[in-house]
Amino acid sequence: MNKPIGTIQTLEVVREMDTGYVLENDILLHHNETDSALDEGDMTEVFLYRNKKGQTIATTQLPHIQINIYGWAEVAEVLPHLGVFVNIGTSKEMLVSKDDLPLFEDVWPIAGDQLYVTLGNDQKGRLLALPATESIFEREFEAAPDRLLNTTITGRIYRTGREGSVGITEEGYRAFIHHTEQKEEPRLGEQVKGRVIDIKEDGTINVSLRPFKKESIREDADEILAHLEENDGVISFSDKSDPEAIRDTFHISKAAFKRALGKLMKQRKIEQVDGKTYLKQ
């Protein structure tokens, strides 16, 4: 009976050969995939995968992720034309296909980020790492207590989208980050730290990656000054500008932009004339 790849099996050693061992069902266990000396008839616990030749290979390096068993896997390498490879705890890194990653590569994970994945097979029977869906994460969620409001919390992003990003915190709370509450869209698999700004009736939380308003105004004002200095002291923005144009350029809301402009005008650092903002000399 064929043993399914992507699973851990206990198999009998049939014979030894120069490069390793042949297990039952003609499965190969190379010397570099085990730290133990084995004899014919021994039973050994192994994880099964396929090599590039399509042969079923065994390793005694037992991963924490298998077929239908989920876990966090660290991203080891990114290949734009393929996807990303993750480390599941064996010598063979598993591919997360680009088809299972965000459309825009600027929010793809980078080396060191972590994805919550299981193993599955593609149409050719090759093992792939498959990111968990929302329904899988629902099993992991805990209800957040009211005392978390306005506290700082750490989590990891598992979904990105136009409306915002979704993550799971270290405590298991589902966290939504609206696009207005982040200056830059976090990467899939990125660890972020933010402030809890709302706790919903269902126990999920809304998180902001922006600092408190006073600190945020200062940062936004500094960014506007930087834009002015980079553009010879003038930018085609004012407190009447289009909100989307403001967001595309400064990655903040129009309200935040107006607060920062107000701070700079009060400090007599800028002036607005005919829909433009000028740096005062």
Structure overview:
The protein is an alpha+beta fold and 281 residues long. It has 4 domains: 8-59, OB fold (Dihydrolipoamide Acetyltransferase, E2P), CATH 2.40.50; 71-132, OB fold (Dihydrolipoamide Acetyltransferase, E2P), CATH 2.40.50; 141-208, Nucleic acid-binding proteins (OB fold (Dihydrolipoamide Acetyltransferase, E2P)), CATH 2.40.50; 213-279, Winged helix-like DNA-binding domain superfamily/Winged helix DNA-binding domain (Arc Repressor Mutant, subunit A). 16% of the residues lie in helices and 37% in strands. It is built from 4 helices and 18 strands. The protein has a 5-stranded mixed barrel.
Largest sheet, if any?
5 strands, mixed, barrel
| Percent range of helical residues | 10-25%
The span between the termini is: 82 Å
Spatial extent as radius of gyration: 26 Å
Structural class: alpha+beta
Q: Going across the major beta sheet, what is the strand order?
A: 1-2-3-5-4
In sequence order, what are the helices and strands, one letter per element?
A: EEEEEEEEEEHEEEEEHEHHEE
Low-confidence stretches: none
**What is the name of the CATH architecture of the largest domain?**
Beta Barrel
What's the average pLDDT?
Answer: 91
Looking at the structure, what is the overall shape?
elongated
- Total count of domains: 4
Q: What share of the residues does DSSP label as strand, in percent?
A: 35-45%
CATH topology of the largest domain: OB fold (Dihydrolipoamide Acetyltransferase, E2P)
State the CATH class of the largest domain.
Mainly Beta
Give a count of the beta strands, DSSP E runs of length 2 or more.
18
Relevant CATH superfamily of the largest domain? Nucleic acid-binding proteins
> What is the number of helices?
4
Family: Belongs to the CvfB family.
GO molecular function: nucleic acid binding
Pfam family, one: CvfB_1st
Organism: Gracilibacillus kekensis
